[in-house]
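Report of the visiting student (M.T.), summer placement. My assignment was to run the structure pipeline on a short list of targets and document each run. The first record concerns Gnt-II system L-idonate transporter.
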Amino acid sequence: MLTLASHPLAAGALRAATETPTTDAGTTQLILAAVLGIATIIVLIVWLKLHPFLSLMIGSAVLAIVAGIDFVSAFVSFSAGLGSTVAGVGVLIALGAIIGKMLIDSGGADQIVDTILARTPLQRLPWAMALIAFVVGIPLFFEVGVVLLIPVVMMVARRSKVSPILVGIPALAGLSALHGLVPPHPGPLLAIDALGANLGLTLGLGLLVAVPTVIVAGPLLAKPLAVWVKLPPPTTVLGVSERDEDAPRPSFAVAVTVVLLPVILMLARTVVEMTGTLESPVGKGLEFIGTPLVALLITSLVSLVAFGSAMGRTRDEISTLVDKSFAPIAGILLIVGAGGGFKQTLVDTGVGDVIASGISDANLSPLLAGWLVAALIRVATGSATVATITAAGIMAPLAADLSPTHAALLVLAIGAGSVFLSHVNDAGFWLIKEYFGMTVGQTFKTWSVMECVLSVVALIVILLLGLVV
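After the run finished, the structure tokens were exported:
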């Protein structure tokens, strides 16, 4: 019987699509390939305004061809990397989107915000906003967190008659730190996947790094920024959707428990692994439920009950909410997948090994090198995700020789670099500008400065941890 795979032409195409391409290129050619590939991505995103998915795809092809891969096999590594990345990271992002959607739509996020603000005196408002962003931001993508919290910031500023900078910067610092440092956000997940780091360990260290980083870049920095850029208390609050006050919503305890559940499950697995109790019945159980995919799946199902059926929603309504949670992440998944393809092209061509060797010969700390690469690409492209993907691909060969703790710290260093200096080529820059009603100059003096401080403080904390762990 003649099958598709047995046909000579089909068999040849199948081999071409699955065999890892090889190249005999020298060091100079590989470095040139890396420079041209990354430059292509930057030019396409910054000047031609091409979507990052297409830019990463074209940049991968340029990298492969200049590195000596034949034209037919130019996209083999890209396709393999895209598939493995979406399989490993894409599902986690989708599950996180479900949790975030259920949290917002049920009023759970509102409950967390209202409960914390109700117990906060005026002088503690900046700290309260940082805490709210830190808690609510764990399952939410940055843009979703901004849309959710900035109207709250404006309401707090109006009622308290204070500058929106004073209460807004702490909230933005909390959201940005979690976005760059803490899984299950896309950037840290991508870096963990590319570097082979332990997710639970990275999560624990990420939270440890995020706390002092948010304190410095949030409440402490907000005071001088509010003096430097004087914004009057807002008289109107844009973007606030009226919610039925009589509609049921989960309690504060339930909302916080669901938000923290995946964190607790993944950290529990890490503790079991580090204490060497995996072989016990309890250890095996915690190892299973602490697996990232299982932990987020469990949390997603719990959110459907706690934020869905327990709030009186029908099964059809819950199904509709889950369906709606996927639409906003379609673009993110494509970018994430394309980034994985670019990373795999870097690895298969040997470019990553050459750059890693150069960093080793220069006696530069891998943590500092990872931060620098991510920061440079972030400034050039304006995309934290692209910066994380590219830097992780470049640093992947070095990670193989690092201890599990330092591999996790390298993930965090890359994440810290990926949020450095948001400016006019970053969509987040314009989002903040419009919500706060600031000029471009004022946005540079507040949001951009905060991002720089946050990135540098995070790096300092990471380097200090690298000396003691």
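The first helix runs from residue 8 to 18. Residues 370 and 381 are 17 Å apart (CA to CA). I thank the supervising group for their guidance throughout the placement.
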